[in-house]
Every structure is written in structure tokens, then in C-alpha cells.
């Protein structure tokens, strides 16, 4: 009974009655009952009659109760209890379910025994969750709801404790023997502790929570943070508390500066800031973007005053070999074999440009890995034409040869529906029988050569997380011809280091950590708080990561498992159980870009829920990533769909934003939404109903 105080008289509420007809209420209230609450109270111990009080929750305590209606005792009837045999039937079913959960513990005992003590309870709850999902519980859930008990669909964080509590309530209702007061007291703290488990794991991974509540905000940072050192500080002020660095881009020099600025900004502002560094992983990406040209202009890089910062770089080859991946070039020239055979490091190759001026190019380095080629440098702007003649003056002779092919190296290209692209092995960029040698046709090299052996004509191919789609037209051992079938009406930009996906192909990429990942991991272990494991697929991938971390002795380094493929979704429970064998903090990122391309856009929503449910059962924090508030970040104004996406994202422990022109405004907007969401979740007592403490 909750006491009420009205005009000096004490009441006790005995029921909450809603289904009265509107004739019971004063005329001025009809048609506007949604803003009012209804409470039925009886005066005791003096009277048996009841009085219905109608009050506006927004009113002040002294003026909230505006109207009341006297009711007869027979008008206030408690709801009829369900028959005992119904409760007994539900009780027996629940006990059978509980038996299945306990059997799952025995079945998974070997895996559970390997889990670190920090994760043992979470691992056991995950096993219970998986066992529960194997049962057909639709009718049981309906029966539970029909008698006012909790459905088993919403007990992921504490499966067995919740079932035990429901069983206890049913035992009390049907009058059967219970586990006793001591047993009940043991169950209650178990459920409470499990509900706090995800919170503590999120704090271990992302650091303490900010004023915006229990959801962290992560932002991707790149080179732009170096040229604008106040950017990270502005992001932290706006509400960000995790900075992400993508190791697929830039190099340790850039990463070091980003880490330095982030640490310095965090210390000066007194705000927590964790550093997440994503390893590139075994992902197919575009490497070089090359365009066939009949002429090319190469120019050295200069400063504002016109002084040269670095010369123009030209790759000279005779058999189509591309330059090394660590060397950036402005153009690739394929020349005749006779001239190529006479080249030596230190030679000066000269040609006459269309203006009649002689341009010298100095050969500075030779490469012999996977073929051969020479790197040359030009300190003046030069115009090179297809079919032009190159000269090399030797001590005893003069050697000449023609330019047989020109490929310019582009940072990005614009593709439209109907365009034809050629994917080629990195060693065969300038000569292949499938190449389209027309003017401005495009050749793209790949980060891996494995796709050339497994794809088939007619299969789809996606670029840049599905922003561009193509269809494979033809292939041989060294090249794949792709027809673009979907792009923006005004053309879509495709840059280097962008994702390539083959959702219908059985291409098997290398698993685990690549050679680049192993090199980058040294830097990550020394400088970051969390390492992102990209394109993790199975338990073997997870085990290889754990072995590398053990070698580096970093038990506190957080592990972020990026779920990007259907295989990872299917193996997620096993991946988590394997990760739980270490003491490292664990998190899961829903990488919706690759996930949508790999699994299909029509299944993305379902898969998101599946990942969230598994992680909720395992008490593992989830990061909601890819294109969150993307339009706001780029244009400064959000779309309606983005706002509702954020509302769904608030179920996660962390929300990730990408970089962009208006990213600070986006972080501030997200922080505002998180604060308001936290405020609405706080439970408030209705007016004139005192809190428990005031009744003591």
C-alpha cells in the first residue's frame, strides 16, 4: 500500500483502474485523458468506499489532483488469478527448460574450464543463452505473458537467474515446496551481478563513462588531425572518448602524431580518451589506380614559393611489372626490351617534349622482385607522349627506344554505370591480353592475387563497401574485366585502399594476421589501448591473435573483434569463448559496411539483432559502426533515418562516427541525444506518491 496525503487525510492506493467509461470524469477532462494519471485509493481504517483521483503529472504537487470520483466497493475488483493448474503446467515446462540449460553446462564444460576467471560467469551465461535459443519457446513465452510473468525472450544478460526467479514465483503461487529462504537469497545477487557485468566490461575496454550516460562515442582520426591539432581536443570537448586509427591507411609516422595529440589533449582537458587501432587484416582492397593515356604530364612537388620539395617519379618497365607497393609513382612507362636492357642506375634518360625542349630523367634505383623495373626521377615538369622516343647516352654508343604504353597513377577515379574496369595482378599492369587499351580506360591492381583463381564470369563484385557494383565479364589467370552496373547518376569516386567484395564467390583469403598486421602490431601494442582485429573469421584466427599478444606481454590491451563476414557471424559464440580464455578486455564491432555487402542489405537488420543478443548474453560491449550520422558529418544536417539509426544504436555500448567536415558538430549532436536518452530512462515517481525513503 502506498500512502497518499490529500487535504490532511491519509489514503492507501489499492489498485490502478483504467477501463472506466469517460462519464465518470468531469466534462472538461473528456477527450484529453492521455495527459492524466488515474489512481484509486480507499480511506482507511475509517471508510470502505473508494475514491478515484485524476491528476496531471506535469502539475505541481499541491495542485496536481484536480478531480475525483467516488466509487462503490463493488466497482473496484482485483483481477482474477489464473487457475492453479495453468501455473503448475508453466512451472513444469520452466523446470524442463532449466534442466536443458544445466545440461548445456556439462556439454560445454571443457570450453568453460578454459575461460579466464574474469569471464567465467559470462561464458556460462552465454552457453545458457545458446541452449535457450535451440528450444521452441513460443507457446511458453505466450503463457508466461498471459499470467503476467516475464517472457524468456528478454533475459539474455542473466538467463538462469531470471528463470530461477520465475520458478520461485510460480512455486509460491501454486503452493509447492521452494528452495528455501537461503536459496532464494543466493539467486538474487547472482542476477544483480550479471546485470552489472556488461557495464564493468565496457568500462574496462573503453574507460569510465562520460556525462552522456553509459554509451561511449568513438571517432575515426586521420591525417587531418595533424594539420589541425585542436581537432581532437574539440572532439573530446564535444563528447568523444575513443579515438580510432585505421592501420590500413597512412604509416607509423602519422599514427605517432595522432596518438601524441590525443594523449596530450586528454591530459590537458582532464577527459578520458582511449586509442583504438584497427589492423588492416586479410582484406581485398584496391591498390594502384592506373589510367591508359596517350600523353601524360609529370611534375615535381613544390612549395608555395615554387621551390621543389620532391621530384616527379616515373616507373620504367618492359614486361608490364608494376612498381613496389611502398613506392609512389606519377606514371608508368612501358618501353622496348632493347632500351630496357641497356639501362643502369645513374643513367640519364632524355626525351623531347611537344614544346621542343629536352627533358632529362635520372635512373635512381633498380628493383628485381617479381620481375624488374627502374625508378627514375624528373626535377622539371615534363610532357610525355605515347610513341615518343627516349634516348640514353652511353660512353661508346647512343641507345634509343619508344614509349609503348603510358599509365598514369591516380589517387581516385570517377566511374559511371557502363564503364569497364580491369583488375590485374600487381605484376602485370602494363601488358595483358584482356586489358582495354583505349584512351582513359582504367586498370586497378589488387592487394591480393588470390581472387584471379576463383572468380567466374557472371559473378557480382562490389567496391568501396557496396557503393559501386559491377559484374565480372571475363577473366584469365592475370586479369578480370568488370562492367560497372551500379553507381551514382553523376558518377562515383573510387580511390586507392578501398574494399573489394565478392559475395557470391568462394574465394578463400588468407586467414589470421597478415605480414603487415604483424609489423603494425608492434606499434599498436606499444601505443594503443585497444587493437581492432579486422576480418576475423574463426577460432583459429582468434587463437593466432592471442599467441601474438602473449609474445608481446600485453594482458591489458583491449581486443575489438570486427564482425564483417557471414562466417564471423556464424562463429561469434565460439570466437567469444576463445577470446574469454585471455584476461584482455573484449569488445565486438558491428562493421556494417562489409557486413551488408557480404550478407546482403535485406539481412543486415536481422544480423545486427543476432550479434547484439549474443554479446548481451556474453556481457561483451558492442560498438555500432559504419555511416552513423554520415550525412550530418558530410553536409552539416542529418537525415530523419539517421536519427532513428542513432536511437537503435543506443542499445550498444559504443557508437562510432567516421571523419568528415562536420564531425565535431556530429559528436556534439550525438552527445546531446545520448544525454536526453539517459534522462528519459531515469525512473521518476509520479506526483504526490512519496518515495520509499519518505515512508520509513
Distance between the termini: 13 Å
Radius of gyration: 34 Å
Q: Numbering strands along the chain, what is their spatial order in the largest sheet?
A: 6-7-8-29-30-31-32-33
Regarding quaternary structure, what we see is: single chain
Which outline best applies?
elongated
Spans where pLDDT lies below 50 across 5 or more residues:
1-67, 179-189, 683-696
DSSP E strands, number: 33
> Percent helix among the residues?
25-40%
Number of continuous helical runs = 20
**Largest sheet: number of strands, sense, barrel closure:** 8 strands, parallel, barrel
Arithmetic mean of pLDDT:
82
Description:
By secondary structure, this protein is of the alpha/beta class. The chain contains 20 helices and 33 strands. The chain has an eight-stranded parallel beta barrel, surrounded by seven helices. It has a seven-stranded mixed β-barrel with strand order 13-14-20-19-15-16-17. Strands 1-2-3-4-5 form a five-stranded antiparallel β-sheet, with no helix packed on it. Helix 8 packs across helix 9 (252-269). Mean pLDDT is 82; it is low at 1-67, 179-189 and 683-696.
Amino acid at each position: 500500500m502506498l500512502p497518499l496525503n490529500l487535504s490532511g487525510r491519509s489514503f492507501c492506493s489499492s489498485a490502478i483502474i483504467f477501463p472506466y467509461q469517460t462519464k465518470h470524469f468531469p466534462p472538461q477532462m473528456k477527450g484529453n485523458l492521455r495527459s492524466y494519471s488515474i489512481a484509486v485509493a480507499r480511506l482507511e481504517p475509517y471508510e470502505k468506499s473508494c475514491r478515484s483521483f485524476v491528476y496531471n503529472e506535469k502539475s505541481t504537487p499541491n495542485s496536481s489532483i484536480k478531480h475525483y470520483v467516488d466509487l462503490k466497493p463493488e466497482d473496484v475488483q482485483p483481477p482474477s488469478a489464473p487457475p492453479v493448474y495453468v501455473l503448475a503446467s508453466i512451472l513444469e515446462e520452466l523446470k524442463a527448460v532449466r534442466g536443458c540449460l544445466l545440461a548445456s553446462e556439462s556439454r560445454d564444460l571443457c570450453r568453460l574450464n578454459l575461460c579466464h576467471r574474469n569471464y567465467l560467469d559470462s561464458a556460462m551465461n552465454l552457453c545458457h543463452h545458446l541452449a535457450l535459443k535451440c528450444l521452441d519457446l513460443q507457446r511458453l513465452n505466450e503463457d508466461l505473458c498471459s499470467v503476467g510473468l516475464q517472457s524468456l525472450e528478454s533475459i539474455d544478460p542473466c538467463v538462469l537467474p531470471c528463470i530461477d526467479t520465475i520458478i520461485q514465483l510460480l512455486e509460491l503461487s501454486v503452493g509447492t515446496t521452494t528452495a528455501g529462504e537461503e536459496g532464494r537469497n543466493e539467486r538474487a545477487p547472482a542476477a544483480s551481478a550479471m546485470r552489472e557485468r556488461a557495464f564493468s566490461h565496457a568500462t574496462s575496454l573503453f574507460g569510465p563513462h562520460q556525462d552522456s550516460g553509459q554509451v561511449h562515442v568513438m571517432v575515426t582520426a586521420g591525417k587531418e588531425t595533424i594539420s589541425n591539432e585542436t581537432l581532437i581536443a574539440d572532439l573530446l570537448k564535444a563528447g568523444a572518448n575513443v579515438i580510432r586509427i585505421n592501420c590500413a591507411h597512412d604509416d607509423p609516422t602519422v599514427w605517432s602524431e595522432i596518438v601524441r595529440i590525443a594523449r596530450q589533449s586528454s591530459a590537458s582537458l582532464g577527459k578520458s580518451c582511449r586509442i583504438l587501432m584497427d589492423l588492416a587484416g586479410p582484406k581485398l582492397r584496391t591498390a594502384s589506380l592506373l589510367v591508359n593515356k596517350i600523353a601524360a604530364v609529370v611534375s615535381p612537388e613544390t612549395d608555395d614559393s615554387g621551390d621543389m620539395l620532391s621530384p616527379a617519379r616515373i616507373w620504367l618497365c618492359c614486361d608490364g611489372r608494376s612498381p613496389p607497393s611502398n613506392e609512389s609513382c606519377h606514371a608508368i612507362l612501358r618501353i622496348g626490351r632493347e632500351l630496357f636492357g641497356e639501362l643502369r642506375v645513374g643513367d640519364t634518360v632524355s626525351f623531347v617534349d611537344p614544346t621542343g625542349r629536352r627533358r632529362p630523367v635520372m635512373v635512381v634505383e633498380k628493383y628485381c622482385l617479381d620481375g624488374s623495373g627502374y625508378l627514375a626521377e624528373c626535377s622539371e615538369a615534363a610532357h610525355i607522349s605515347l610513341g615518343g622516343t627516349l634516348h640514353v647516352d652511353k660512353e661508346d654508343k647512343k641507345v634509343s627506344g619508344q614509349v609503348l604504353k603510358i599509365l598514369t597513377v591516380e589517387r581516385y577515379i570517377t566511374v559511371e554505370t557502363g564503364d569497364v574496369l580491369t583488375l590485374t595482378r600487381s605484376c602485370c599492369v602494363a601488358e595483358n591480353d584482356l586489358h582495354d587499351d583505349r584512351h582513359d580506360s582504367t586498370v586497378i591492381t589488387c592487394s591480393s592475387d588470390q581472387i584471379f583463381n576463383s572468380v567466374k564470369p557472371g559473378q557480382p563484385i562490389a567496391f568501396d563497401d557496396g557503393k559501386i557494383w559491377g559484374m565480372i565479364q571475363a577473366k584469365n589467370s592475370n586479369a578480370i574485366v568488370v562492367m560497372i552496373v551500379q553507381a551514382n547518376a553523376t558518377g562515383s569516386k573510387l580511390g586507392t585502399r578501398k574494399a573489394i567484395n565478392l559475395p557470391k564467390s568462394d574465394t578463400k583469403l588468407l586467414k589470421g594476421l597478415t605480414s603487415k598486421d604483424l609489423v603494425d602490431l608492434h606499434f599498436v601494442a606499444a601505443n594503443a589501448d585497444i587493437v581492432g582485429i579486422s576480418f576475423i573469421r574463426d577460432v583459429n584466427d582468434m587463437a593466432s591473435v592471442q599467441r601474438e599478444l602473449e609474445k608481446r606481454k600485453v594482458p591489458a590491451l583491449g581486443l575489438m573483434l570486427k564482425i564483417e563476414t557471414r562466417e564471423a557471424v556464424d562463429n561469434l559464440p565460439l570466437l567469444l569463448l576463445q577470446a574469454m580464455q585471455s584476461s584482455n578486455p573484449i569488445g565486438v564491432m558491428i562493421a556494417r559496411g562489409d557486413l551488408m555487402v557480404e550478407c546482403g542489405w535485406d539481412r543486415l537488420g536481422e544480423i545486427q539483432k543476432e550479434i547484439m543478443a549474443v554479446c548481451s548474453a556474453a556481457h561483451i560491449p558492442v560498438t555500432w559502426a559504419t555511416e552513423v550520422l554520415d550525412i550530418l558529418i558530410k553536409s552539416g544536417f542529418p537525415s530523419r533515418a539517421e536519427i532513428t539509426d542513432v536511437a537503435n544504436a543506443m542499445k550498444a555500448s559504443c557508437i562510432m562516427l567516421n571523419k568528415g567536415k562536420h564531425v565535431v558538430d556530429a559528436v556534439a549532436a550525438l552527445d546531446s541525444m545520448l544525454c536526453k536518452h539517459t534522462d528519459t530512462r531515469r525512473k521518476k515517481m509520479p506526483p504526490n506518491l512519496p518515495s520509499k525513503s519518505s515512508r520509513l
